[in-house]
Amino acid sequence: MSASATNETETPDLSAIARPPQVLNNRGPLWVTDAVCSIVEGKTPLWWYAGITVSGAFAAAGLACILYMIVTGVGVWGSNSPAFWAWDITNFIFWVSMAHAGSFISAVLFLTRQKWSLSVSRAAEAMTVFAIVCAGVYPAIHIGRVWFVWFLFPVPNNYGMWPNFSSPLLWDVFAVSSYLTVSSLFWFAGMIPDLAVLRDRATTKIRKFCYGVASLGWLGTARQWRHYESMYVLLAGLTAVLVVTVTTIVASDCATSVIPGWHATIFPFYFMAGAVYSGSATVLTLLIPLRALYPQLKDLITPSQLEKVAKLLLMMGSCVAYVYVFELFCAWYSGNAFERGAFWERFHGTAAWYAITCLTINLTVPQLFWFKRIRTCLPLVFVLAILCNVGMWFERFMIVTTSLLHDFLPSSWGNFHPSIVDILTATGTVGIFFTLFLLFIRFVPVMSMNELKAALPGAQPQHSGEEH
Amino acid sequence: MSRLPLCGSPFQPLHAVGARFDTPDALIAAFKRLRDAGYTAVDCYTPYPVHGLAETMRLPKSLLSFLVLGGGLTAIVLALSMQLIPSNLIYPIVVDGKPTGLAGLPQYVPIVVALTLMIGAVAAVKGMIILGGMPRLNHPMLAWDLFAKDASRGFFLAVSARDRNFSLGEVSEILEDAGAGDITAIHLEEPDSE
User: Fold this and answer.
1) Phi and psi at residue A82, to the nearest 5°
2) B1 falls in which pLDDT band (50, 70, 90)?
3) CATH class held by domain A56-452
4) Are residues B127 and B70 part of one domain?
5) Residue A217 gets which letter from DSSP?
6) Do A168 and B110 touch (CB under 8 A)?
7) Do A154 and B107 make contact, defined as CB atoms within 8 angstroms?
8) pTM for this model (two decimals)
């Protein structure tokens, strides 16, 4: 279209294709600062105390179980021949995978300039960090003798003994610790300017000191912003790689073995699709109540943003569904009796209800999000998102444990029953997760104020520098 | 000496002259006028990154990407030697007939990737902190109450008293002309009596 043509005709109405506003009701930068800071500065609401009491109790019970397990031995778990990996590794994979959606939203969507993710990214990153903490509970304790955990690290020692670097289990150690380090740094570094805002607004000496130390003396000089922006892009780039590599390495734990049901090249993709799927569900599970409990956030976490997370969930859920079908097809098409046997047993054996629950939920629930009416009904989305995570937990169990229950020799077929310690440790990790998230809401800004303010209309100069 | 409002201790040397602007446009305009008048030691403080400000100030590109590259390359060398030396020379382990030596290189890739990302990220954050002049517990600018309380809202500018051409009268005139509010002479604070 030439310039003259547009001048002659009337300006076309672009409202239909305009992007939905980042912040509703034309709120200004001062309002954004006040709304986000008021959560930290205001009085602690009653529901927060109630919430942290419940989640803290679960966390304490879980930690007590871990202590009991350490002093007694792994026999207190239900894991036994042939399922030596049961709820421990199931939960490890469940949590570490869930973390991935946070990195996806904050890093990949940042690099692709998806502005809508600004207000959800901080909470999503927090979810990532806390989920990795929950995942980190298991690898060390599941080895049984926790005091030998240093065997996993390449420490020069008197025995002259070194770890086996070609084992995927050792890759896990490095992958998960690097994931925890990078995502914590990404989360913290993104928070520095916002912690400085809390420092400046602090009214008590203790607050001023704590936020002052945490913000490292940030002043917001042009030079600091220059380095900060450069750092943010670099960290986002590094984190975006992690989204793909960590689950790939975790998937290798299973895929590099010969167990039927594990030995598949699709596993890295399988784990990653499930990871972003369950993580998006968790983001929805956390943000919908957060928005309801703090009404001032309603203009910041908009229904349109939540709908986009729901669409992400739908896309990843569909990828997961594709893998289920593909996996079954491969088992049949391979013509391998053991592979076919393992999958037949998965749906007919003693542990079939795990697989059936998993498939029932993961094949149907995300598909409901094709309908706009369902996608935009927030209470319904909240319930469905929780269901998706339940489905994902069953999927992790189906992959890890039911494959072990039925391998090559009938003499090594068996069954698995969780013990009460298994169950309380698992609920304990949920408790740890929610305790950390509640502390996060209360003590640090739940949204990136500086990014939000920079994206507001009118925030940037009309005539930027002549060298621009 | 001057009619400007003053903060810090009047008995201590002048640190800078500060001013507050309501919009990033006004800040950039004022910066340009100061620059045209020959001032070089001028710093801008904003609540969020303002597009074009760094270019106007002619700040060099951040060195951070080179630091991250350096960190990443160090990590690759470190991770490869950490794996290759023990598993081939000190304590060879052959499991599942997995190859050793150069033929076994692919199995060392995951740890190389993990460590590269980790050390790269540490270099990025540490570099940002050090290049940005952090961490520090105090700053002369924080003696200015308005700045300490309002840095998250306003756009501030400070002309350092150590500028070669510094003249209090001229600076306050230029700032006033540029529509600045709250022009203040920022003195250093009394050191703690000890």
Assistant:
1) -90, -5
2) very low
3) mainly alpha
4) yes
5) T
6) yes
7) no
8) 0.91
